Amino acid sequence: GEHCGRRSAQSREQTYVMVKPDGVQRGLVGEIISRFERKGFRLAGLKMFQCPKDLAKKHYEELQEKPFFPKLVKYITSGPVVCMAWEGPGVVASARKLIGSTNPLQAEPGTIRGDLAVAVGRNVIHGSDSVANGEREIGLWFGEAELCKWHLELTPWLLE
Ligand code: GDP
Ligand code: MG
C-alpha cells in the first residue's frame, strides 16, 4: 500500500544512545547493541570514541548547575564510549524504557540498568530524553557522513 515505498516521519524518529566508559570496560557493548537490534530498531550510526571534555560538557549542558556535574564530565571522559544512533517508531521513549531508570537500583529488572548496574554514577548507558534532544545529540556526536541511510529489509516484518 501507500506505506510500502515511503516510510513515515514517525518511523524515522531517531535517538542517541551511548555505552558509557564503564559499559565498554565491562564488556557490555555487544549485549547492549543486541537488545536494540532484537527490539527491531535500525542502527543508523555506530562508532567508538574518546570523548573530549568540551563535548561532554555540551552534551550534558542542561545539568551544568548540578553538584555532580564535574564528576559526570570526568566519568564520561574516563575512557572510550560507543556512540549509536537508532531509528524507528517511538524509538526515543522505547529506548528510555529499554534503558530503565537513571538510578540502577530503581530500574526494573529486564531493563539494561536494572540488569547490569548498581550505581547512578556508573549506569552504563545514555539515551536521549526527547525527540528534540535526540536530534541535538546525534548532531553533536556524529558527522553527517557517519550516519548511514541503509534500508532495513526486515521493515515489512516489523512495521504494519
Ligand atoms: P539519564 O537521562 O537517565 O541518563 O539521567 P540524567 O539526564 O538526569 O543524568 C545524566 C547522567 O548523570 C545520569 O545517567 C548519571 O550518570 C548522572 N547522574 C544523574 N544524577 C546523578 C546523581 O545524583 N549523582 C551522580 N553521581 N550522577 C548522577
Ligand atoms: Mg538525561
TrEMBL record:
Domain of life: Eukaryota
Catalytic activity: a 2'-deoxyribonucleoside 5'-diphosphate + ATP = a 2'-deoxyribonucleoside 5'-triphosphate + ADP; a ribonucleoside 5'-diphosphate + ATP = a ribonucleoside 5'-triphosphate + ADP
Coiled-coil regions listed in the entry: none
Keyword ATP-binding: yes
Matching SUPFAM superfamilies: Nucleoside diphosphate kinase, NDK
Top EC group: transferase
Cofactor: Mg(2+)
UniProt-listed Gene3D superfamilies: Nucleoside diphosphate kinase-like domain
Any Pfam family hit: NDK
GO BP annotations listed: CTP biosynthetic process; GTP biosynthetic process; UTP biosynthetic process
Gene Ontology molecular functions: ATP binding; nucleoside diphosphate kinase activity
Entry-linked SMART domains: NDK
Keyword Aminoacyl-tRNA synthetase: no
EC number per UniProt: 2.7.4.6
Protein name: Nucleoside diphosphate kinase
Species this protein is from: Selaginella moellendorffii (Spikemoss)
